[in-house]
């Protein structure tokens, strides 16, 4: 029986011819492949199972289970799943690009109607997830994939979880830091769909600015960036804030007018954005209510997805590397060029040191760039010089013991016990 299972597994695996690596998700590597049975291009996510002896890990099982239940035009479609050589392979529909590539491509002009269309598709996917009691928990532009027909779809459900149980404790170490809601930054263990809506608001802001809106170097710094932009919340705005596990009192800063931060946005867009950026998660607008906001029914109407400009499809690397092709084994797996990372300013102040810059990738990991190394500089989240203003005073911490905070930050990347 075991030999039969191995034979069937090999036959399924041999159905797909791997091409180049497309990127890395939360728990696996994604490759481009050809389905020899249908002759369609697909994407295969290889999940590393490690040394587990008792079967497939829970992360992979959760992703398969959730994606089988989440059948929606704005959610990535899971086509197949099979084990091979000690790893689990998930076969998805192939998507040409992602929203991050669109935002970063300066040759693409995004009209207000285009931005409205991208946000609408994002919220439709989120609203369907929340209707099915699923939190995505990893919303960011490069997890929003775009197909050949222009449809945007939510992808990478490796961190997704079912919510709704009053006693269920969840980890707050989810989302890339720049898209993490304030309640998560304050250590909340019980939360709901508002965390996804906050991340969607950050993506909305990124579409408007064509750069990340809030770029913190740590959880504490991220909160400082949020409060400097939107103002420090007062108790009437968010009564439960002081009861959160990692709550820290910040010096009050009034923040900037949202119309000043986003001068290119319409009044309707600003109103929706402010409702999505509401501090109190209980008062924050839901994804479904956001879809019903007047922003989407006002002029101009959302652009049809197929009409939105997209980066040109990447050419198949195998066509340029004939020597790497093995006729006996099919196309080899080729590594793509190293993905450029967002460049961050120094921790101190708003000025950038061009000789040595902090770089933080989409997972919030830091690295240093040596002097003289070339880089693509991305501006600070708030470029107040554009508006002829001085940057506001950075919020300072009043009530926290600094050694206590350091211990919390040192423990930040340890494996949490919660889900």
UniProtKB/TrEMBL annotation:
Domain Protein kinase, chain residue ranges per copy: 16-296
Record-listed ATP binding positions: 22-30, 45-46
Catalytic residue list: 138
InterPro entries attached to this UniProt entry: CDK (IPR050108), CDK7 (IPR037770), Kinase-like_dom_sf (IPR011009), Prot_kinase_dom (IPR000719), Protein_kinase_ATP_BS (IPR017441), Ser/Thr_kinase_AS (IPR008271)
Keywords on record: ATP-binding, Kinase, Nucleotide-binding, Phosphoprotein, Serine/threonine-protein kinase, Transferase
Pfam families in the record: Pkinase
Any single GO BP term: positive regulation of transcription by RNA polymerase II
GO cellular component terms attached to this protein's record: cytoplasm; transcription factor TFIIK complex
Entry's family note: Belongs to the protein kinase superfamily. CMGC Ser/Thr protein kinase family. CDC2/CDKX subfamily.
Protein name (Swiss-Prot/TrEMBL): Cyclin-dependent kinase D-3-like
């Amino acid at each position: 029986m075991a030999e039969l299972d191995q034979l069937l597994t090999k036959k399924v695996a041999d159905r797909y011819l791997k091409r180049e690596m497309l990127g890395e998700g939360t728990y696996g590597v994604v490759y481009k492949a050809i389905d020899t049975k249908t002759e369609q291009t697909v994407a295969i996510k290889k999940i590393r199972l490690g040394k587990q002896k008792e079967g497939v890990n829970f992360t992979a099982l959760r992703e398969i289970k959730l994606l089988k239940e989440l059948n929606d035009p704005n959610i990535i479609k899971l086509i197949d799943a099979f084990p091979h050589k000690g790893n689990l392979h998930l076969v998805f529909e192939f998507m040409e690009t992602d929203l991050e590539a669109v935002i970063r491509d300066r040759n693409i002009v995004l009209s207000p109607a285009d931005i409205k269309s991208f946000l609408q598709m994002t919220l439709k996917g989120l609203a369907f997830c929340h209707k099915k009691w699923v939190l995505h928990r990893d919303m960011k532009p490069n997890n929003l994939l775009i197909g050949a027909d222009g449809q945007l779809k939510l992808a990478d459900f490796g961190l997704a979880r079912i919510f709704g149980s009053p006693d269920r404790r969840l980890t707050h170490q989810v989302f890339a830091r720049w898209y993490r809601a304030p309640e998560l930054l304050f250590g909340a263990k019980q939360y709901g769909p508002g965390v996804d809506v906050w991340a969607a608001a950050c993506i909305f802001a990124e579409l408007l600015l064509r750069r990340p809106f809030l770029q913190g170097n740590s959880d504490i710094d991220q909160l400082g960036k949020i409060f400097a932009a939107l103002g420090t919340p007062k108790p009437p705005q968010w009564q439960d804030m002081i009861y959160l596990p990692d709550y820290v009192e910040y010096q009050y800063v009034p923040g900037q007018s949202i119309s000043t931060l986003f001068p290119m946005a319409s009044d309707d867009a600003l109103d929706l954005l402010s409702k999505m950026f509401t501090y109190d998660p209980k008062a924050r607008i839901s994804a479904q209510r956001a879809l019903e906001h007047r922003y989407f029914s006002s002029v101009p109407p959302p652009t049809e997805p197929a009409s939105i400009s997209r980066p040109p499809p990447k050419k198949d690397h195998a066509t340029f590397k004939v020597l790497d092709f093995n006729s006996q084994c099919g196309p080899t797996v080729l590594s793509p060029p190293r993905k450029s990372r967002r460049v961050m300013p120094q921790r101190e102040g708003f000025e950038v040191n061009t000789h040595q810059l902090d770089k933080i990738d989409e997972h919030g990991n830091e690295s240093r760039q040596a002097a003289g190394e070339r880089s693509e500089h991305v501006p600070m989240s708030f470029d107040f010089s554009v508006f002829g203003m001085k940057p506001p005073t950075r919020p300072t911490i009043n009530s926290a013991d600094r050694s206590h905070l350091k211990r919390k930050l040192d423990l930040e990347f340890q494996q949490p016990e919660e889900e």
